[in-house]
Every structure is written in structure tokens, then in C-alpha cells.
Amino acid sequence: MSLRIEDYALIGNTISSALVSREGSIDWLCLPRFDSPACFARLMGDEENGFWKIAPKDKATVTRRYLPDTAVLETRFETKTGVVTLTDFMPLTDDPEKVAVNRIVSGVSGKVEMTMELVLRFGYGQAVPWVQQRDYGLHAVAGPDAVELHTHVPLEGKNMRTLSHFTVREGESVPMTLSYHPTYKRPSFVPDRHETLTHTVAWWENWVKHGRFEHIKERWRGAVKRSLITLKLLTYEPTGGIVAAPTTSLPETLGGSRNWDYRFTWVRDSSLTLYALLNGGYREEATAWRKWLLRATAGDPQQLQIMYGIAGERSLPEYELPWLPGYDKSAPVRVGNAAANQTQLDVFGELMDMLYGARCALLPPEHEAWEMEKVLLQHLQSNWQNLGRGIWEVRGEPRAFTHSRMMCWVAFDRAVESAERFKLEGPVASWRETRDAIHKEICEKGFDSGLNSFTQYYGGKTLDAALLLMPQVGFLPPEDPRVVGTIAAIEKELIRDGLVLRYSTSNTDDGVGGREGAFLACSYWLADAYALCNRTKDAEALFDRLLDLRNDLGLLSEEYDQVAKRLVGNFPQAFSHLGLINSAFNLCEVGGPAQQRAGKDGPPANGANRP
To answer: Cα(128)–Cα(140) distance, rounded to whole angstroms?
Structure first.
């Protein structure tokens, strides 16, 4: 039986990452990049699909934590004979083709008999490598991929597995390193693991010190720090791109088929990411994020995609892995994402809003950005009335989604604001005319007077949690009766067990079928809407409720299953952690992203929040 999603921890080095279970087993690891084929895929199958477990031979009581202000995981095993800790981390590296996982077993008291089991299966759990013992441990190769296991414990090969039994006493430590390199290159040198640990801890502590948390309520600062660390872990350092999650096909419903590959970068995350990073004080990461977006989206505006690979790749073909039964028998397991080929007009608004925010924050100028924006707007002026798939990437019929049209309004609104505020040249009168026409159409066709609410799409009767962003982007003020009515309708129709559904799957043909859990970012958006409407107590109560859904390490997945009372969906999810970060700032006295976007002030400049 599969472990719960919340039983996993994330370690990484801003090149790739791994999921480590409470039992001391690495059950998901892609090498050398986030989107590379996994060499440990037990998470999506069983033991035969690859894992690496280090744990006591006998039954143990398990506790775990991240070392404070770091991405270094420490798991503590208490047995009848003694106590050991297992420290897991991935060292930072300047070479994206040389990635390593370090694991150190340390004796705390008494003595503990330990077992190690390594099952390497390249190609998403399918390819059994050729394994040879070396004086430092073992060497394994399969096609283009090779790994070295460095350890001094005795190793035994049995049934296509590598096993070891060893004893750790108080004061002793046993380090192990699994290092990757392309087959055609030499293995990398493995330095002293304890020195590497010290360096890694210091690097993360220093990174956290650059953050700005003084305006956050003290009881929430730890959660915000952990979410920012998680966001950094999901960043591909060579390009600045941020993956939505490090996993593929963790189900939105246990046993269901809503299983997607999230190891890519979504344009829809543009503004939320920029505002989270800048409010948190991370201007360098925000600048890298903007550069990634400009590089990835450059080209013919007709070819603008909703997502790209972490280096800006456009081709993300979707296919299934039939040899993997899926997490908790949730099939199929998919690689790639066909939604990359969808038309989603909201991405134009997201991109324009992000670039406007970057200017307001006084990020270093990118002179080609404005020329690119004008070309995008020229295309959008002729195409904003086209049908699309919307922010939720439905695989049913394309429609005139209200949120998508609203983000088209955002695109022209931010262009007008940019031209006027920063003295940039452009057809401002024409943009203003288009902006006003979109606004008028949305108010006429997107609002249902019978429901007293904006609807998911023109002519429909269903609701959409994305409409909670309406006051945040400045489309209508929070006190507008139509905004108040929309919030009330969503509270009535889309809230289950105190959490917000993104839409009703029973009333919307999304082309997939089956129910799903509560999409956590949507509940953060409701908290933001409450904050804008001065419903502070409601906002704080919902925020605290959401904090309670994190696992013991402070991590969130994409959704929460109110029936099973479990986290579901890909894990950890950047969108959920972005929601946590931004909502925490929205609830501070000086205001955060929601207030900054609504007032069109933009995010804070020079790392300081505006009063």
C-alpha cells in the first residue's frame, strides 16, 4: 500500500529534487534534472520500480524535521537499543550534469542495527542497470545515465538489488553518496560529506537571511519561510524557471485518472511568483524569473504557450507509462503535458501584469521587453474574443471563460498604466479603447443577475473560484455589489468542509470526468478577497485553517481531499505555496500583493514594503 503523500519530504539542490518518506526511503528521484526520467519511481509503482531505503532493522519510533532555515532533512529513529539520525540533502552544484544525494547515518545513543537497500531502475522504473562493485562502492550504468554509490559499508548484490547490514554506535557516522553523471563523462569527485553538509546548511541559512519577514505576523513567519525555501527548491537555477511541482501523476482523486505531469513552468504563475519573491525580499530570484519568462515566451505571439520546459522547451508531448500502475493504483501515469498546446488567453494578462510589476519594483530594465509587449498586444487586439480552455486547462469544449477575458483586460490595462507611468511609447488610445470594450463585455455577458454573480463562462450558470481574483487585479473594487455577490455565491456553492473548489466538476464538462479535491490556491484567493473586503477575521480564520493542512514539515500538495482527509495532487505544489506566501503578506498591516495589484502600485521596490 502506498504511503500517504504527506508522509514525504522534499530535498533538492535547485537542479533536481527527491522525495524521502518517513520510513527513510527515497521513492522519487529524477536525474539529472527535474524533468529527467526517474531512477527511483516507487512512488508511482512498487519496489521493483526503484527506491533507496536506509532504516533500522528493528521497529522504530520516527520523528523528522528540516534543520532550521534549510532544505536539509533530519529523520530520527528511536529503537529499543539506541537512537540514530538520518540526514538527507542534495549538495549545491555548478554543474547541472553532476547531481548527488548525500545520506549520513549518525549514532546518537546506544547502538542500532541498520539496513540499506538500493534498487536502481532508470527510465521511470523500467530499465535495470548494469551494476559493478568498486573499491568505493558500486558503479551502475544504463544507456546515457550512470551513478556511483560511495560508501564504506559492505555491499551485497541479490535479485537485482544492492543490500547492506551495518551497526551504528553513539558518536559514529556512516555517510553514503549517490552521484550522477552522463555515461560518456567521468564520475565527479565526492568530497567529505560532513564538510559538504556544513557548507549546504550555511548556504541555506544565508539564503533565508536575505528574506524580509518583519511585517508578517510572528506566528506565520515559519510557514512563510518554509514556503519560500520550497519555492527556491523548485527553481531550476541555470535558467530561473520554476517547476509547478517536482512530480508527475500524483492523483487529484485517489484511484482516479486526473493525473498530470507538473515538472514544467506555467506562464499563469507569472505575477503571483513575482509578487511572492519581491515581497519576500528575493530580488535576484525575481529578476531571474522575469528573464526566464522573456526568453521562453519570445517569438511569434500566435505561438505563445501556457507552459514551457524549465529551459524554455516548447515541445512537451504527453504519453503514458503502462508499466507503472500509478500512485495508489491511480492510472495512468503521464509524462509530458498536452495542455501546452491549448489556447488560454489569460496568459497574455499574466505576462503583462508581471512585466508591469517588475517595472514598478525597479528591477533592472530589460529594453526588449516593451517591444515584445507591444507585439503581444497587437496580436491580442485581434484575438481576445477567441474561445479558449481557461486557467484550469479543461479538455472539454472551448468557451469564452470570464476569467480569461478579465485577464485580457488586465493585459491592456497594464499596458496603458506602463505607458503613462513610465513614459513609454505606444498606441495608448487604441489600448484604452480595447480595454474599455472588454470591461463592458464582461460586465454584460459574464454577470448573471439571477445568480448575482459572475459566472465561469459567458452564458453559463456555473461558478469559478478564479473570479475571486477580480478585485485583486483591479477589474472592479472589492466593495462593488457584483464582487460582493460573486464572493457570496462562491461561499454558497463552491465551499466544501471550509475549503474552496475551483469549480463544480459535476456541473462543468472539463473533458476528464470524476471528482477532485479542493484546489488549495483557491482557498488562499478567498482569504485574499476577504482581506480586500476588510473581512479580516474571516481571512485569518481561513488562513489558519489552511496552515493546518500542511504536513509535519510545512509542505502542501496541489489539493486536499475532504473525503479521505488527505493531501492529493502533485507534491509539493508551487501554486499552493505561492498562495500561502502572498496571503500572509496580504494579511500584514502594510498590505501585500492583493493590495499592490488592486491599487496598481506594483510590488515593493528595493526589497522594502511600502507603507
So the answer is: 9
Does the pLDDT at position 505 exceed 80? no
CA dist 464 → 298, 474, 526, 532 (Å): 31, 18, 12, 19
CA distances for 110 relative to 17, 57, 77, 490, angstroms: 33, 15, 12, 57
Task: Retrieve residue 242's grid coordinates.
Answer: 520554476
HSE-up of 27 (CA within 13 Å, CB side)? 24
CA distances from 365 to 287, 290, 295, 355, 511 (A): 10, 11, 15, 10, 42
Residue (of 462, 325, 447, 403) closest to 47 by Cα position: 325
Give the pLDDT score at 49.
98
Q: For cell 557548507, name the residue.
A: 199
The CA-based dihedral angle spanning residues 366, 313, 571, 65, taken in that order and rounded to the nearest 10 degrees: -60
Distance from C-alpha of 604 to C-alpha of 358, rounded to nearest angstrom: 10
* pLDDT score for 299: 93
41: its cell numbers: 519511481
Can you tell me the distance from the alpha carbon of 442 to that of 457, in angstroms, rounded to the nearest whole number? Answer: 10
Domains of the chain: which residue ranges? Answer: 5-207, 210-599
Nearest to 333 by CA among 242, 262, 235, 243: 262
Q: What DSSP assignment string belongs to 277-304?
A: HHHTT-HHHHHHHHHHHHHHH-S-GGG-
Interval 572-599: pLDDT, tens: 999 999 999 999 999 998 899 999 999 9
Q: What distance lies between CA 391 and its chain's CA centroid?
A: 16
CATH of 210-599 among 1.10.238.10, 1.20.1560.10, 3.40.50.720, 1.50.10.10? 1.50.10.10
Residue 2 DSSP one-character state: P
Quick: pLDDT tens for 273-313.
999 999 999 999 999 999 999 999 999 999 999 999 999 99
Strands, DSSP E only, in 372-476?
A: 447-448, 453-454
Distance from CA of residue 15 to its chain's centroid? 14
**Which H or E element spans position 107?**
strand 100-119
- Residue 508: the pLDDT is 65
Predicted local distance difference test score (pLDDT) of residue 238 = 97
**Which residues are CB-contacts of 259 (< 8 A; sequence separation ≥ 6)?**
248, 249, 250, 251, 252, 326, 327, 330, 331, 332, 333, 334
The yes-or-no verdict on residue 492 having pLDDT over 80 is: yes
CA dihedral 547→18→306→512, nearest 10 degrees, is -80
**Cβ–Cβ < 8 Å for 298, 292:** no
pLDDT in tens, 203-222: 999 999 999 999 999 999 99
**CA dist., res. 284 & res. 277, Å (int):** 9
Longest CA–CA span in the chain (Å) reads: 78
The CATH code of domain 5-207 reads 2.70.98.10
Residue 611's pLDDT is: 27
DSSP conformation letters of 64-92 = EEEPTTSS-EEEEEE-SSEEEEEEEE---
